[in-house]
Amino acid sequence: MKFVTAILASACLAASLSAAEALELRFAYAQNATPTKEAMAKFGEILKEKTNGEITVAYFPDSQLGGERELVEMVQGGLLDMTKVSGGLLESFSPVYGVYSMPYLFDSEEHFYRAMDDAKIMDPIYKSTEARGMVGITYYNSGARSFYTAKKPIEKVADLKGLKIRVLQSPTLIRMVQLLGAAPIAMSQDEVYTSLQQGVLDGAENNEFALTVARHAEVAKNYTYDVHTRIPDIMLISTATLARLTPDQQKAVYDAAKESTEFHKQLWGAAVDEARKESEEKFGVKFIYPDVSEFQKAVEPMYEDLKKNADQYPAFEAIRAVADKKAN
User: Fold this and answer.
1) CA proximity to 149, closest of 192, 179, 109
2) Is 186 found in the same domain as 111?
């Protein structure tokens, strides 16, 4: 029912968008860490300034129009202008996005930024969904994803055996969790809290903001820093929307998006520190530091499989080519 309502609401919005000559962009998103929400708001401010008020952005936050997958489908169908979703979810729409769900793809946050800011790497990825009615225009750091649990703490790989772990709707992440011995359950982020509370899930995997913004720290008290992935958030725009904009307006949209990413970088580090502090002091979350090499070894078969993946392996090689330099 929520999805049907969202479609009807979006259809009405699309109609008003046409009447307004595509000058008000509808941007819907699900739950977000504070710096990401601020960066998306900054995008609207910058775009309005760059177009001298010709283009404004109307926001629909907190899953008002549906979960992430529903929002992507609305953008894809031209019922919504823009959204921001996890790159992991986009694997279902373009296989190349699955590369971001590969465990231990990035050596560090610095490596992550180096790759994500490289147009030669990112342009083909952003455009890979063009035939499906949408393209990526920028990214936001979504942190390092790690496991957290309601009851049983994870101190080693063996502790994951048999646990029901929520993952994004990504075949790559599902495979990773299976190799680690757990039972992956793909579900929308807005279902996770109740599922943890009721025992439908034993745990999940996400960054520290899931503990605070999504309030998972109320029902999950163990957070294990295995830092298995760094999956970016991707800002998407409908190709139908782009087609209604002039070349100058299109450039303004792209430039404003990139500038909002730079703004996001300035906020991210301090916000992560604050989320961790709040999780510990307010909710009593225990942070665990396991032997990461054990987790890396358990998922090694994924890298052999990746070599046979014509969609993802070229992107993997390009990202690894700008990896951190190791000391001799």
Assistant:
1) 192
2) no
